[in-house]
Write a structure and sequence with these properties.
about 75% helix, membrane (chains A, B, C), 10 helices, about 0% strand, cell membrane (chains A, B, C), globular, mainly alpha, transmembrane helix (chains A, B, C), transmembrane (chains A, B, C), homotrimer
């Protein structure tokens, strides 16, 4: 489980995810490519911009572009009837992308000697940034804000890697699988963080009274 | 048809386009300036950020700022009754901006030796990025995603320039006029790319069955 | 009234502002942190990106992060019943953030020898950019576009500082207090700039006739 594999898994998973959203919005083929590429490469671009790292590197990932292109094309022409059975597959792919890019983003931040808070932010931005841009461009509320636990798993990945607890390919693979499992379980069991109203209740002020 | 002329035409066209949207949303005068400037200069700014090129250059285009300022002011105070007859003029101006900035963006990317995929992306981003920010800031779905063929013409400009097929002022002028004509024709004849549902039908799965 | 104080006041005020919006949208705790930090640090980040200034500096503001973190946590768990009495306090805090960051943004732009138009833009972006990102991420129309006079006060701060009329801690403090007072007065007395329809009326074309 090295960088190249994480990059490839993330590009495929988020390319498909962007295309599925484009299909739901009935975008045309070029719209699907734009949304798919934005979802696949948006997180890393935002991370590099905000960390002050070079963004030129994004344009020389020739093989990743081809992989994303093929994934998007496949997902766009994949029969609708089969897609509708694949909602859980979509959640799974999105979790794969989140896990792959969160780890990759944290590794990248560590490699440029960024401070811990930047490592955690890089993990969150790289893991969820592409999906956030995807949701903004389609006028949806970013998943990071309302759904089951999402960004927290990316933040944990950043924290563990930033603190140096995770190193070596085997431990990274364990983290990768654990992140996917935790994200899928969050959706399946509807895990949530404290919300505003529950926060109020917990300290004794029920706003609905 | 050199860089300076393309810059001026694009700034005027997109400044007016942003102001027309601001008028429709009943924004105040400062809102019209912000939206007009964002539309006129947003595409080039996003392109420079994503290509890793310098963005300081944006702030020293003194004459372009003045031109955009005058265009916005004029469009804001232009009588509503006359504007409503000018819907087709608005499409025309937007097409002028798209063509001017797509060519200019591609030229810019070539001038900094960016790879072909970055040249095409620069053409699309510079041509349509300002309008995309305009639509996001006003809560509209970006035109690039739902309307008649839009970004494809910018992508073609990027491809032709990136492959070196277009050079010299005369050929560039022909491309510029062709892009405007193709975009206007797209709206007039309602040309579209394959959409999701038609893609399904073509391969034999009609989701509406 | 030096840079450090302006930074702290702005981070507290915008952190609280982001959390209040997150509460209204019933976001979870992590959503409140993301929105609070985005509002508190988004304006400065956008300014640095657009001015071509270094963004690495954002990640080493350790004390500001802690201050924002505490402010957001406090605002999130602050009882709802009390919050609803504090609408005017929210406007006040937002005005404090706008004033603090507009002055700080203009000072920053002057310190890197940016031209006047960039100083004014830096004041507007730093003062209102965080709130703009906050509104985009929650699907709201940016306050800068529809409300009582907002960005104009930031623009004035940029103009005065860019022209060198404001220098020395005492004069800056006067400007700071004046900006807050003007923004609060704008809301209280519903001051607005000319809108599209009034612009039409003024020159004799009433579109509602």
């Amino acid at each position: 489980m090295n960088w190249a594999v994480l990059d490839i898994l993330g590009a495929i998973a988020f390319g498909i995810s962007g295309t599925l959203v484009a299909s739901e919005e009935n975008y045309d083929l070029l719209g699907a490519y734009i949304l798919g590429f934005t979802t696949a490469f948006g997180g890393g671009t935002i991370r590099n911009l905000l960390l002050g790292a070079s963004v030129e590197g994004i344009w020389i990932q020739r093989n990743l572009f081809i992989i994303a292109f093929v994934s998007i094309t496949f997902a766009f022409f994949f029969p609708h009837k089969w897609k509708s059975h694949f909602t859980h597959t979509a959640v799974f792919f999105d979790a794969v992308g989140l896990a792959a890019f969160a780890i990759q983003g944290a590794n990248y931040a560590v490699s440029i000697d960024a401070p811990l808070v930047a490592v955690v932010t890089a993990a969150v931005l790289t893991g969820s940034g592409g999906g956030m841009v995807r949701d903004l461009l389609t006028g949806r509320k970013p998943m990071i804000f309302y759904s089951e636990i999402y960004a927290l798993w990316a933040a944990f990945a950043g924290l563990f890697i930033g603190l140096g607890w995770i190193s070596g390919p085997y431990v990274v693979t364990v983290l990768f699988v654990a992140l996917i499992a935790l994200r899928v379980a969050s959706v399946y069991y509807k895990w949530t963080l404290p919300h505003y109203f529950s926060a109020q209740k917990r300290i004794g002020f029920d706003p609905e009274e």
